[in-house]
Amino acid sequence: MKKIKLLIVDDEPLAHQVLAGYCEKLEYVEIVGNCYDGMTTLNFLNKHTVDAVLLDIQMPDLTGLELLDTLKNNAPKVIFTTAYTQYALQGFDYDQVVDYLHKPIRLTRFIKAIERLKRILQLESRFEEQPPATLGELPKPEGDEFMSIRDNKVVYRIAYKEIQYIQSWGNYLKIFLINDEVRIVRKTIKIVESELPDREFIRIHKSYIVNLHHIISLEGNQIKIEDQKLPIGKSYQVSVKNRLGG
After folding, report:
1. Taking CA 138 as the corner, what is the angle to CA 136 and CA 140, rounded to the nearest 5 degrees?
2. How far apart are CA 177 and CA 159, in angstroms?
3. Cα-Cα-Cα-Cα dihedral of 99, 121, 94, 146, to 10°?
4. b vs e for 84-112, b when ≥16 Cβ sit within 10 Å of the residue's Cβ?
5. Alpha carbon distance 231, 90 (integer Å)
C-alpha cells in the first residue's frame, strides 16, 4: 500500500511536534506539509494533493470549519484535532470528516483514527474501480436479523447486531461494523431507515443512524459508540433523549 499523505494544520507548534512524533511510528504515513493558519492551508491545498488533513478548528484567518466551507467538495479527508469538541461536532455535516481527536491526544486513539482513515481510503478507492454494492438483493424471510448486500457477484449477509452505525454519503451509505470493517452501498439513508427495525436502530442526525445496542452513553448532544462520538441533530434531540431514557 502506498503511504497516506498527511498535512498537519494547527496554530500551535507543540501540536505539530506531538502529531509528527505519532506519525513517525506508522510506516504507512507520510507528512507532506505543516501549516499554522487557515489561509496558508488553503494556498497549500491549491498547489498540492494530500490524502488527509489533521485539522485544528480554532486558527487565525480561517477556522477549520470555514476552511472546509471554502474547499467544499474538493477537500481531502479530515481528522479534527481540537480541544473544542462542541465545534468539532459541526464537522460531521461534511462528508470529508473521518474522525475527531480531543486534545490532549493519546497515541492509541490517534492510531485508531489513522486506521479508520486507511480503511475508508482503501474502500473509496475500490469503490471508484468497481460498481458499488447494493442492498436488498435477496429476499429476506420474516424474522431474520440481517441485511443482504450484493458486492459485485458476492452476496454478503450482515447481522444487525454487527452494525454499529450507518453514515449517509450522498446517494450512498457507509456501514460501520463491529470488526472495524466499513462497507459502501448504493442507497439513501431515508430508505434504509424505513427498512431497518426501529426496535434496534434510531436516526440521530440527518447523516447518521445508530444501533441502540452499541450506544455506550448519551453525552449532551452526542452519542458515544466505543470511542467514537456522533452528533445528535437539533431536530432529533427530543426523540433521541426520550428513547434513551428521558
Report:
1. 85
2. 10
3. -80
4. bbebbbbbbebbbbbbbbbeebeeeebeb
5. 8
State the cell numbers at 105: 491526544
Q: Using CA atoms, how far apart are residues 233 and 206, in angstroms rounded to an integer?
A: 7
Whole-structure pTM value = 0.70
d(CA 79, CA 52): 7
Q: What is the pLDDT of residue 246?
A: 58
Contact of 114 with 26, CB cutoff 8 Å: yes
Instruction: Tell me the C-alpha distance between 28 and 142, whole Å.
Output: 45
Which is it for the CA torsion 80, 85, 87, 92, positive or negative? positive
| First-to-last C-alpha distance (Å) of the chain | 47
Asked if 68 and 34 count as a contact pair (C-beta separation under 8 A), the reply is: no
The per-residue pLDDT for range 49-76, each reduced to its tens digit, is: 999 999 999 888 888 989 988 887 778 9
What does the block give as the cell for 182? 466499513
